[in-house]
Amino acid sequence: MSMTEVIAFISGYQTLIDAPVRTQTTVTSVRRTESGYAVRTSNGHYQSRSVILASGACNQPHVPLLQTTIPSTIRSVTPFDYRNPSNLPEGGVLIVGASATGVQIADEVQRSGRPVTLSVGEHVRLPRMYRGKDVLWWMEMSGVWNQRYDEVDDLVRARRLPSPQLIGTPERSTLDLNTLSSIGVELVGRLASVRDGRALFSGGLKNQFALADLKMDRLLDTFDEWARTSGRDADVALPERFAPTQPPASSRLSLDLRSGEIRSIVWATGFRPDYSWLDVPVIDAKGHLRHDGGVVVDAPGMYALGLPVLRRRKSTFINGVEDDARDIVAHLARYLAKAPSRLELA
Hints:
Blueprint lengths: L2 H15 L9 E6 L4 E5 L2 E5 L2 E3 L6 E2 L13 E3 L14 E5 L3 H12 L4 E4 L9 E2 L2 E2 H7 L13 H5 L17 H6 L3 E3 L2 E5 L2 E4 L3 H25 L24 E3 L5 E6 L3 E2 L5 E2 L11 E2 L2 E2 L5 E3 L16 H16 L6 E3 L1
Parallel strand pairs: 1-17, 4-20, 6-15, 7-8, 7-15, 8-11
Antiparallel strand pairs: 1-2, 2-3, 3-21, 5-16, 9-10, 12-13, 13-14, 18-19
């Protein structure tokens, strides 16, 4: 779906359910009261017995502290600042991070004529299409997306996995590191530190590639097994495997940021939620909401939706939040049934 189609989809849903949506309204504070929660906004104050936090997990860019050690002659931008290559100075661009955002920006900037160096750490590689179907169709149909949070072996790690290297285009083309290498993007290891104006990259780039390829092939094996056992083999194309990610012949371990080769850095190093308005002690030391499958810990009547692997692996997707919402609403209904609800505009 294009941006326009997504906007129309959400607007149509609002119309369909006749929701009292308050646009252009900023929540400035949520705090506990004796009867529930006091919600302050730029357009009025509310009292409620319960609150659902659906503000998402990508409210602000996460930039490592070593950003402060970058020479002042280099312009630093985040994906929130970036609009297109013309926003960047002429000259080389270092992009830090090779998840969905990083590879998309690297592709666009390289094609604009600016040379790109892409710093690659842990990443998730997926083909856009597999056996004639969109990879997200496979994720849904095979049940991978529906794996519950209480079935995941390492939930903390699952919730912090990088986003897959996918891009949405009408052609449903695959965008991976091989594609970027083929158009001239230079691949280097994870940015480990900056010392005396030199960016230092970790070794082991080949191992990072091999691990991402291994995980992708295991996932494709899961798809193939589902197609075979469900009798769907005849409905899709034959199984296929993709070329391994090719490491560069030699990978730089350092880059002099004072030489003029690099004029700007894009920090595609992930995103974080923003809970600065939440005046309830439910945030841990790392800034994450403490919740059990969307039921906020130590805050009766408070819930969350739209966070990574909230209740299922698909929790952050538009088509994934529906099942989570049904579970949360069921819990909420039981909570509200204990006493009369109250929702007032103060």
